[in-house]
Amino acid sequence: MTNTIDSSLLLLNYQQNTRKTGTNILGKDDFLKILITQLQNQDPLNPMQDKDFIAQMAQFSTLEQMTNMENSLENFLKSQEQNYMLQASMLIGKTVTFLDANNEEKTAVVKSVSFKDGKTLFQLDNNEKSSISLSQILKIE
């Protein structure tokens, strides 16, 4: 019978548990917790002044409105992207006149539409199987 040491017990393999905390971003809930803690632990002989309390509540209200506005803008942008995709897809099957890389006017049928990195590309059904951007289109038939 041989005595062996389990390798998972070696100091080299020991991983110290790291404490995980929240994110580095303070939200409205964090702000409210700090305010409540501040009110609970204030000096009874020297309480928070009314103007300080009102200023902090105004900051909290501003933070809440900014958060709501950010959420509304995100939802608006998502709906705009979907709307734009629908509008661009209407060009599929249409004949477009466009400027190629040599600034020559050419005509082709739009085969498909793709969206990459915030740009819209129209794949054409021509001999070169080229792709063009919206800014290159001169005419739609």
Task: Give a description of the structure.
- With 141 residues, the chain is of the alpha+beta class.
- Among the domains are: 50-89; 91-140, SH3 type barrels (Roll).
- The chain contains two helices and five strands, in the order ααβββββ.
- The chain has helices at 28-40, 50-89, and strands spanning 95-99, 105-116, 119-124, 131-133, 137-140.
- Strands 4-3-2-1-5 form a five-stranded antiparallel β-sheet.
- Strand 1 and strand 2 form a beta hairpin.
- Helix 1 (28-40) runs antiparallel to helix 2 (50-89).
- It is flat and about 85 Å long.
- The mean pLDDT is 80.
Strand composition percent: 15-25%
The tally of beta strands, per DSSP, is: 5
CATH topology term of the domain at 91-140: SH3 type barrels
* Radius of gyration, CA atoms, in whole angstroms: 31 Å
